[in-house]
Write the structure tokens for this entry.
Amino acid sequence: ATPANDLCTGAININCGQTIAGTTASATTDVVSFCSTTLTTAPGVWYSFVGTGTNNILSLCGSAYDTKIGVFTGTCGALVCVVGNDDFCGLQSQVTLPTTAGTTYYVLVTGFSTASGAYTLNRTCAPPANDICTGAVSINCGQTINGSTTGANTDAVASCGTSLNTAPGLWYQFTGDGSGVTMSLCGSAYDTKIGVFTGT
């Protein structure tokens, strides 16, 4: 039987820091555009992820056969090449790409010529610049900023109305002007918390 992620429409999510083992042995070949290398000659399987706004590394290093990799945006019916690779670490493949927060990326794991076999796919995400307090991004009155805490680290901060040291977090800053300020995460896509501090 073909794998569940044999087609782009069945792409399996891969998270930051996750390594997935699989095989392309029973997969089919895919009809995709040239993407730094030809990706249409060997069986392939698909993964997907949502961009973090930082550099992401997708690596097949350590796989058991001669691999290729391609990364696309768009939709499964209209894929747009971002980057591809044939040989990075020996005969295995790896790509590094800047990602846009909120954008879905599709990853094709395939092989050189007609090669297929066992692979390990790893995704590494660089933390955002404002992952630490000293990298806090300025936010102005009336401004709305979209972002993602995916790939960020957990912060060692004191409780501030609620505990804030259990999940990945990002930092922003502003200068008070003596008036009241409302900071809102309403409309965000997950169960959020917020803390506001002074000092250093």
In short: Residues 104 and 180 are 37 Å apart (CA to CA). The mean pLDDT is 95. DSSP finds no helices and eleven strands in the chain. The two ends are 58 Å apart (CA to CA).
